[in-house]
Amino acid sequence: MDPSTERSRGGVRCCLWRLTVLLLSASSLPAATALLEGLYCGTEVCYDVLGVSREASKAEIARAYRQLARRYHPDRYRAEKPGDEEAAHQKFLLIATAYETLKDEDSRRDYDYMLDHPEEYYQHYYAYYRRRLAPKVDVRIVILVTICAISAVQYVSWCSSYNKAISYLVTVPKYRIQATEIAKQQGLLNRTKEKGKNRRSKEEIREQEEEVIRDIIKNKIDIKGGYQKPRLWDILLCQLVLFPYYLSRYVAWYVCWVYRFTICREEYGEEEKLYLIRSNMRMSQAQFDSLEESAKQTFLEKQLWIRDKFEVYKKEREEEMKAKLATDPKMKRYRRWMKNEGPGRLTFIDD
């Protein structure tokens, strides 16, 4: 046989033998060799750290953790050699990490999956950091608490504004006189004088009269706008709860509007005309309700629900406002100040 042929066959046999040894070595590697530093217990198996099997129950894992924690806890551990304290501290941190990994069912399931499928590196990284960076509190609870807090602040603010409005109206002579007359008609201020032990001082009588007048103003006067009486169903929480109801009402109203006034060509009633006027003016319902009835009648007389007539009315109002501002002494002083000493003018002040 040719020597060169024999050498080539020997080289092939050597390569085949090395490849066989490499494959046998790779197949005999344990799963722990695929563990990555920085994930869970690093290059150590969490079960081995606690000294339990993969079939261990929660109780067995907790028992093993308590025994190892008592042994390696920094407050209990007594070092025999210098430097053992740091090693014991790192051991305690590893034990705590293993327990945190195995005590939770979801985390333990992900860890077992990593041991069984060591080749899926990216999936393991994603599952690990998704669990670590996920918020500890349910987002729905956070949203609910935030909405409740906003609703509470909203209601308290409305109550404060309403009480300020009532306190102001009590001091207005017009409303005070009317409330006093109503109180006298109802017999709330015409009581007989008290005698003996039941006799009250003038201050007590005055305080009671003020309370009576305040209650009458509160019950008789309908305040609109931002100072109206607070209602629970107007706060954010109730509005969100009732949103499906309001949406269904709006859809039904819109369909009815289109059917009546677009398809059937019905004439607008007073309520519909006022709605169109409010839409043209871009005012909320509360703002429009705060207007006087005489102003609303003026709007109806001028037929402002018609878009073209409203545009003419709007231009007339703008011209009137410009003319009023041009003749207003305060505006003249302001324009004079802006021209001579406004914020855009540089001056030197001599001391």
TrEMBL record:
Keywords: Chaperone, Membrane, Signal, Transmembrane, Transmembrane helix. This is DnaJ homolog subfamily C member 25. Belongs to the DNAJC25 family. It is a multi-pass membrane protein. GO terms for biological process: protein folding. Residues 45-115 form the J domain. One of its GO terms (cellular component) is endoplasmic reticulum membrane. The chain crosses the membrane at residues 139-158.
